From TrEMBL:
<feature type="transmembrane region" description="Helical">
    <location>
        <begin position="210"/>
        <end position="229"/>
    </location>
</feature>
<keyword id="KW-0560">Oxidoreductase</keyword>
<feature type="transmembrane region" description="Helical">
    <location>
        <begin position="142"/>
        <end position="166"/>
    </location>
</feature>
<keyword id="KW-0472">Membrane</keyword>
<feature type="transmembrane region" description="Helical">
    <location>
        <begin position="328"/>
        <end position="345"/>
    </location>
</feature>
<dbReference type="GO" id="GO:0016020">
    <property type="term" value="C:membrane"/>
</dbReference>
<feature type="transmembrane region" description="Helical">
    <location>
        <begin position="57"/>
        <end position="78"/>
    </location>
</feature>
<keyword id="KW-0503">Monooxygenase</keyword>
<feature type="transmembrane region" description="Helical">
    <location>
        <begin position="292"/>
        <end position="316"/>
    </location>
</feature>
<feature type="transmembrane region" description="Helical">
    <location>
        <begin position="186"/>
        <end position="203"/>
    </location>
</feature>
<feature type="transmembrane region" description="Helical">
    <location>
        <begin position="33"/>
        <end position="50"/>
    </location>
</feature>
<dbReference type="InterPro" id="IPR017516">
    <property type="entry name" value="AbrB_dup"/>
</dbReference>
<protein>
    <submittedName>
        <fullName>Monooxygenase</fullName>
    </submittedName>
</protein>
<feature type="transmembrane region" description="Helical">
    <location>
        <begin position="9"/>
        <end position="27"/>
    </location>
</feature>
<feature type="transmembrane region" description="Helical">
    <location>
        <begin position="261"/>
        <end position="286"/>
    </location>
</feature>
<dbReference type="GO" id="GO:0010468">
    <property type="term" value="P:regulation of gene expression"/>
</dbReference>
<dbReference type="Pfam" id="PF05145">
    <property type="entry name" value="AbrB"/>
</dbReference>
Length: 351
């Protein structure tokens, strides 16, 4: 955002996002509150609306979603972890292959420089890739917009594909499925609130990536796997959190000239196709080695963001624990290995 430009209206952004979410929920479209908010605010941003979402509100709602996702982890999880080793190993191979192909695509199709292509192609770690890419000499604005477009396109595409090609049907009610109610016992409120507050503090102290999501999710998963509580955040609160998440994605495009958005989204369509096709191919291959259906593996591998893909899995009634666990590993692989690999390639003169 340029100096002197108004910061933008958060009230307008949330009103547009809530309106889009309500419209999508009424139409019984997949993941309505997040997708509706995302589509509506992206359209508003493209048309020049000066909108924003305060980082602090987004952080609070990310913590709520983290607790919600953690509540999907059940005591049987401990028996499943060993079974996921093969698919997690496949995920690492997928990330390397996908990153290499998309880097080549950005260089050839978009004309990005080598550094920008590399960090824009990483299938995950938006904030980290923007920061490290800028330090390495890349165009951080292009990297950020390309990652934002990837998340937007993946989240918009997958639920509709599942509705077209699987037996998925959106829930009849307006609120997300699986949510609790506001009249839960005080003990459960205290536990869930503690997960939302303590989880990020511990995760940040340990320098865990995406601490405000992963911290509450892991702490919530721990208390749910341990049988301390089976409570989940209220459905209305989860819907509000999804509106804020979707609105935040749409607002990333605010203040960007339409021609820049159109160019980056156009280029990102090609990269998204590469990523999703690879995800399907790897899902089909890994399915032969595990008992996990290929379409669940597509959700686990799809680089649409940990919160977003886990919410898609929740909305589709798939294995949220498996999907979320794989995305945690994906983020870890990208955040730790991508900068190290780039420095090694630069040292050996490959970039």
């Amino acid at each position: 955002m340029t100096a002197g430009r108004p910061r933008g209206s958060m009230a307008l952004a949330l009103a547009i996002g809530a309106g889009g979410g309500l419209l999508f929920a009424w139409a019984r479209l997949p993941l309505p509150w997040m997708m509706g908010a995302m589509v509506a605010t992206t359209a508003a941003s493209v048309w020049g609306a000066n909108i924003r979402v305060d980082h602090r509100l987004r952080v609070v709602m990310i913590c709520v979603l983290g607790v919600m996702l953690g509540s999907a982890f059940k005591p049987q999880l401990l028996d499943q972890l060993g079974e996921w080793a093969v698919s997690i190993a496949g995920l690492l191979v997928y990330a390397i292959v996908a990153g290499g192909l998309v880097t080549w695509y950005f260089r050839k199709a978009a004309g990005y420089d080598a550094v920008t292509s590399y960090f824009a192609s990483a299938p995950g770690g938006l904030n980290e890739m923007v920061i490290v890419g800028r330090e390495m000499g890349g165009d951080d604005r292009v990297i950020a917009l390309t990652h934002s477009a990837r998340i937007l396109l993946v989240v918009m595409t997958l639920p509709f594909l599942f509705r077209l090609f699987t037996d998925y049907a959106p829930p009849a009610g307006l609120l997300p499925g699986g949510g609790g109610s506001f009249d839960m016992p005080a003990w459960d409120w205290a536990i869930l609130t503690g997960c939302a507050v303590i989880g990020p503090l511990v995760a940040r102290r340990l320098k865990v990536p995406a601490a405000f999501l992963i911290g509450p999710m892991l702490l919530s998963a721990t208390v749910h796997v341990g049988g301390v509580t089976q409570a989940t955040p209220p459905g209305l609160l989860v819907a509000i959190a999804q509106v804020v998440m979707g609105t935040g994605i749409g607002c990333r495009f605010a203040g960007t000239p339409f021609r820049d958005i159109a160019r980056i989204v156009g280029v990102s369509i090609g990269s998204t196709v590469i990523l999703l096709v690879l995800g399907v191919l790897f899902g089909l291959a890994v399915q032969q080695l595990t008992d996990v259906p290929w379409f669940v593996l597509v959700l686990a591998y799809a680089p649409g963001g940990l919160a977003e893909m886990s919410l898609v899995a929740l909305a589709l009634g798939r294995d949220v624990a498996l999907v979320a666990t794989h995305h945690i590993f994906r983020i870890g692989f990208i955040v730790i290995l991508a900068p190290l690999a780039f420095r090694l390639m630069r040292r050996t003169g490959r970039v």
